[in-house]
Fold this protein.
Amino acid sequence: MRYESPTTTKEAVALLAQEKGQAYVLAGGTDLLVRLRLDTIEPDLMVDIKRIPAMTEIKKTATGFKIGAAISGATLGKNKALLKAWPGVVEATNLIGSDQVQGRCTMAGNLCNASPAADSVPAMIAAGAKAIIVGKKKRTVAVEKIIIGPGQTILEKGEMIEAISLPAAVKNSADAYLRFIPRTEMDIAVVGVAISLKLKRGVIESARVALGAVAPTPLLVKEAAKAIIGTKLDDEALDALAAACSSACNPIDDKRGTIEYRRRVAGVLAKRTAKIAYERAGGK
Amino acid sequence: MAGVHVTTTINSDPVEYVCPADESLMDVLRDRLGLMGVKEGCGTGDCGACSITLDGQLVCSCLVLGAEAEGRAITTVEGMADGQNLHPLQEQFINNAALQCGICTPGFLIAAKALLDENSDPTETEIRYALAGNLCRCTGYDKIVKAVQAAAKDLRK
């Protein structure tokens, strides 16, 4: 295996394009280096992106935020502007692993690893995040369109994510993420729910609801958003939200939870998540 | 496999080594540099026994490549004491008998120091969350938490 640590995106893309064997992008390495260790991958080339300035900064732009692909969870959690604008995205990312893992893990890596249970992905989807993909040409793709199956993404050979973009925070809007795990820390989501919403005089004007760990890919559930739009999140709206989330689930039975259990928890968790987002947005 | 030549700083000392591109920093520290305070528990980032700081950031050295350390600053448990004087955390781990077999101890010390560097007066809950990435299979954590609280108190004096 060769190790390269380019200092520009252009160089990184060229390295990936030129490699005839198996090439991998190394961001935090909290998934990749485990796979290397377990011999489930045999890379010919690893391209470390942590020395590329564009990938190691959080930029506040006119249209929102641009979060470099190599930004760790720990760095993300210390960014006050981001925490204020997208608390749900930050808290979801900060739920990944231990403090040691937080020192390395990235949102872009979480997305590319494409686990159905990835914590940051539903939060990014609810927030309307987009992945800025570089390769032969640059393209920007909504996060919900990136993962197509467990461990599978739309990224083609020679492509990589340069940054995640988040829209600017709008007044009277907020997001939240909750996951259910049987322990209090260091576990993989049984169900994850992310909701972002915008209020107008206390009424939900727009919303996005995303679920994790209940289907082969994280889901954007439009029916669930419809259930709360135009409401003040009364009990009836909450019940409709829960029903829409439960019926959108297509989970597996495993040691973490049965199909029935996951469906039920998705509804319960969605209600709780919506209440947090609503309150954060200034709703009473 | 061609080796990667790395120049870095470990516990404030300049260090150079050559390692295969796919070798973990944990293996470099232990097997090439003899820093045996870095322990291998799981090798997959779950147990925290190989905890170090990299440019001040707490990480598992098993989940870092040796090649990545170029130009960075590393701290291991070997760099915690000041000559013959143990760090207050080390003192309090001894006073509180916060270890049995000792395999997890260097990782706990490094992680606890990272916590106290950021938060000089953590609550018990904060300590337990901050140390959730470190596994101990002997003591059951209570003594470790007490040792960290006592050390935090010492450090605030």
